[in-house]
Each structure stands twice: as C-alpha cells, then as structure tokens.
Amino acid sequence: MSEGGAVRPAEISDIEELVAMWTRYMRVHALNPAYRRIRDDALDIRGRLFRRHIEEATSAVFVLEAEDGGLDGMIVCLVEENEPLFEPRRYVRIQTPFVRREVRRRGYLRRLLQATFEWATDWDIDEVRLFLGADNLIANAVAEDLGFEPIEVVRRFPLRPEPKTNWED
What we know:
alpha+beta, five-stranded mixed sheet, 4 helices
C-alpha cells in the first residue's frame, strides 16, 4: 500500500483508472457546452490519448496515488507551440486537472501542479497555461488563488442544433 498523496508520472498500467477518472471529470462538467457532444468511442480515444501522453517525450501525465494503491488525482501536461506572433514561443498546456472530491482540500492539486512546473522547467519552458471551462467558477477562483491569471476566453457559436449530452442519464 502506498502513502496517499504521493505524485508520480503515470504508467501504462494506470490507463484504465485514468479513463475512469476522466469519465468522472466529464460527468462533473457535463453542462459545459464543449462537452455536450461526446463521441460513442470517446473512452477508447481517451485511453489512446493517455497512452500517447505517457509515452511521448513532449507530454506527461502525473497521478496522485491513493492510500489504497489506486489513484486520487491526475493532471495532463504537454508542450505546445504558441502563435508565431507572440512570446513565449512554447508553453506547457495543462489540462484535465482532477482530484477526487473525497480527498480535496489537502493540497493535492498543488502537488500535481508542482510536478508539472518541474517538468516544464526541465523542458526550459517558462510559462504554463491552465485550460479551464469559463463556466467553472470554483476552478477559476482556485486557479487565481494559485497565481494563474486569465488571458483569454474562448466562446463558441453552434451553427446547428445540438442533441443532449451523452453524459446525461
């Protein structure tokens, strides 16, 4: 049994549990318009993406170990090229930061972010960008408390009527 709260790079053997956490993440954010139209094969695709992020040098997945040996959290980070007009030329994109509700408020998100910051520093990158839903007021407030500043808001305009989300039961 591992000590809860330890952060480590994800392994291929973690993919099934990562996909389960991603599913929980998607259900929590099911009202976000970006997540309304999930493909039927989304879980398979997400599993392949986790594998790629674990195996490729320019991306990483960090996980938070649970006391029972499972996982209590995750964060995905990848090196991205910035728009050619702007500095920095590259940054680390942070996506899908997630800590299970039952273990929140213990500093675990900070630990996941610290692993990401160290990984970015190893890549000689001096900026990370955390992508959050504009509708997620709590996550945005937490991000600002952690020192992230907002730099843009992406808005969408659907050109066709949309069906109900696949996550609605």
